Amino acid sequence: MGKLFNIVTAFTFVFACALFLSISSVSADDPLANQLTVEDQQFTPGSFEDPGACIACHPDIYEQWSKSMHAYAWDNKWYQDDYQLAHSETAGATDVFCAACHAPIAARTGQLPPHDGSQFDATSKRGVSCDFCHTVTGIEETFNMGHVSDPGSMKYANRGDGSSPYHGVAYSAYHTDALFCGSCHNVRHPVTDVAVIDTYDDWLSGPYAEEGITCQNCHMTPTAGIGSNPGKSSPIGQERDHVAFHSFVGGSVVAQRNMGNEQQAQMSDEFLKAAARLSLESEIKENGLELTVHVDNVGAGHKIPTGVTYIRKMWLEVQVFDENNQVVYTSGLVNDKNHVDPDAVFYRLLFKDGDGNLTGKSWLAEEIGYDRRIPAQGRDTEIYTITLPGSGSYRADVRLMYRSLSQGSLDFHEGAESEKIESIEMATASSTFERS
Ligand code: HEC
Ligand code: HEC
Ligand code: HEC
Ligand code: HEC
Ligand code: HEC
Predict the structure, then answer these.
(1) How confident is the model at residue 36 (pLDDT cuts 50, 70, 90)?
(2) Which structural domain range is residue 192 located in?
(3) Cα Rg of the chain (Å, integer)
(4) How many Å apart are CA 318 and CA 304, to the nearest integer?
(5) Is 366 within the bounds of a domain?
């Protein structure tokens, strides 16, 4: 409890400092500098336009965005569960920190506190929306939301050569840069500096950054891979070779299905399946089988999994059958309570709290406690040693599985009657072999 109190005081302290430092102006490379933005970037409620104002002239983009997780960043149930828990365990110290990314317009127009969003206007409730992104004029920090806002009638993006009867258009190099995404998709604990989300830093040090392939190239196209989307961004605009697609697809198959967005769920499923490949090698040893499983990250520009990997997870499911289709070995199966075999090989990240215990509570992160993920264009290898009951032919079936949220976490928030979270298959491989 003492430790928790320290974290709470420290969170509050950092915000207080940020306020103070913003007056005495610090250098941009100071680790606290990123905290300035929320305090500095204050506008009157109503300064940012509602996404509804863009529908008439950008109907396709509106449709895509409105079913993206950005549109649900504030009001989605799984976010709210975690946010409310953080609030109650830190006496509110995390409220503005979380909202800065999940409800950026609310945070920048003084609509917190109260933390529960009861003072949010309709625009604030719509998460990361059009006018937040398209009035960004600078980025001060590579993590914890260093975007500089200049809300108004000028809209900034990747062109600047179009003309709109409703607003000005301006070219912005920031919007074409991965850092535009990265400053939100890079979260550091403001007190302990633990990398809570490292998607941008990870991308930056990987092969795709080297080749100049950005987040936008993969996530602002209609299909997995680097696709294109020819057409017009507005029926009254110019014809373009590629119009930035706004579905921002990731791995949220289940969340999207729960919200009734079947098409977005399908696209998310395709993204997950495009990310990984499995391959097997089997070798008969004296008392059984040595099964080598390789997992290759072939499609993601960053580690898999990425993002909130302390909430999401991937794991290997392995089953070996004899010639009568009787199971002789399993690992990574789901039990009747829908929990994954705890002895499975897990790809994920967990933190260590102040008492040295593993935790998925980001606000308690003192250091990284467990980290097994597969780098972009990289490979993970696991060797299973499996005892075989006798001679004959056998088959090994292996699947790489993904969950957006653990059943344990859902049960904790919603009780034992909670929905049974679905496991998504990312890749499969099978191999047959003989034991003489
Ligand atoms: C009356 C119609 C109209 C409305 C309303 C409208 N736009 Fe536009 N907008 C356009 C047209 C036309 C273009 C130019 C498209 C082209 O030629 O490629 C454009 C271009 C843009 C661009 C591209 C900027 C660049 O890089 O060139 C952005 C960003 C944008 N609009 C954002 C918005 C947002 C955000 C809203 C809602 C707050 C909105 N628009 C409302 C008509 C409109
Ligand atoms: C998370 C931030 C984000 C949100 C939310 C967002 N956009 Fe964009 N938008 C971008 C980025 C980044 C680009 C430029 C992509 C690129 O360079 O490939 C862009 C490009 C555009 C363009 C120019 C498309 C082209 O290729 O000609 C228009 C128009 C536009 N957005 C309108 C909107 C509207 C309308 C909404 C809401 C319905 C919206 N955007 C929501 C980030 C966002
Ligand atoms: C203002 C902060 C912010 C910016 C800027 C931003 N994002 Fe996000 N993004 C979020 C948040 C918050 C979520 C999580 C929403 C949720 O699931 O509650 C998210 C979720 C996502 C997801 C996961 C979708 C899924 O189905 O799981 C993808 C992919 C994504 N963003 C891509 C991008 C890309 C690409 C850009 C840059 C063009 C970008 N984001 C810019 C805050 C941001
Ligand atoms: C080479 C293409 C590629 C590039 C580049 C890329 N991504 Fe991804 N991304 C993917 C694929 C494929 C997935 C689905 C696999 C997964 O969820 O891990 C994904 C998943 C995601 C997710 C969802 C993770 C989850 O499971 O919740 C987020 C968030 C995300 N990317 C953000 C980004 C950001 C931010 C960048 C740039 C810094 C980026 N991506 C660059 C291909 C790419
Ligand atoms: C600097 C920006 C930033 C801050 C601050 C931030 N988040 Fe997030 N959050 C993100 C991004 C980006 C994602 C999307 C990653 C992914 O999809 O895997 C995300 C996703 C999530 C999700 C997953 C939601 C889903 O749809 O499954 C939860 C839960 C969450 N955040 C909780 C929190 C809490 C609680 C806080 C405050 C303690 C917080 N976040 C602070 C950027 C941020």
Answers:
(1) very low
(2) 2-248
(3) 24
(4) 19
(5) yes
Q: Are residue 297 and residue 190 in the same domain, yes or no?
A: no
Confidence band (pLDDT; 50, 70, 90) for 39?
low
The Cα 286–Cα 254 span in angstroms is: 44
Residue 269 falls within a domain, yes or no? no
CA-based nearest residue to 74, from 32, 137, 117? 117
Backbone angles phi, psi at 219, to 5 degrees: -100, -5
Assign 38 a pLDDT band (cuts: 50, 70, 90). low
- Phi, psi (5° rounding) for residue 278? -115, 145
Within 6 Å (CB) of ligand 2, which residues are found? 51, 54, 58, 61-62, 65, 70, 128-130, 133-134, 157-159, 175-176, 180, 216, 220, 233, 240, 243-244, 246
Q: Hey, what are 201's tokens?
A: 């830093």
Q: What is the CATH number of the domain that holds 387?
A: 2.60.40
* Mean per-residue pLDDT over the chain, rounded: 91
Whether the predicted model's global pTM rises above the 0.90 cut: yes
Give strand pairing partners of 418.
none
Residue 290: inside a domain: yes
Domain annotation covers residue 265: no
Same domain assignment for residues 307 and 195: no
- Across 223-241, average pLDDT: 96
Q: Which of 280, 279, 247, 245 is nearest to 266 (CA)?
A: 247
The one-letter amino acid at 117: G
- In whole angstroms, what is the distance from residue 256 CA to residue 187 CA? 24
Cβ atoms of 49 and 28 closer than 8 Å: no
Of 248, 266, 287, the domain-final residue? 248
Centre of ligand 2 from the C-alpha of residue 165, in Å: 18
Task: Decide: 179 in ligand 3 pocket, CB within 6 A.
Answer: no
DSSP structure class, residue 304: B
Same domain for 297 and 194: no
pLDDT tens-digit series, residues 172-216: 999 999 999 999 999 999 999 999 999 999 999 999 999 999 999
Q: Please check whether residues 194 and 94 belong to one and the same domain.
A: yes
**Which carries the bigger pLDDT value, residue 270 or residue 9?**
270
Number of independent structural domains in the chain = 2
Torsion angles phi and psi, residue 76, rounded to 5: -75, 145
DSSP H or E stretch at residue 168? strand 168-171
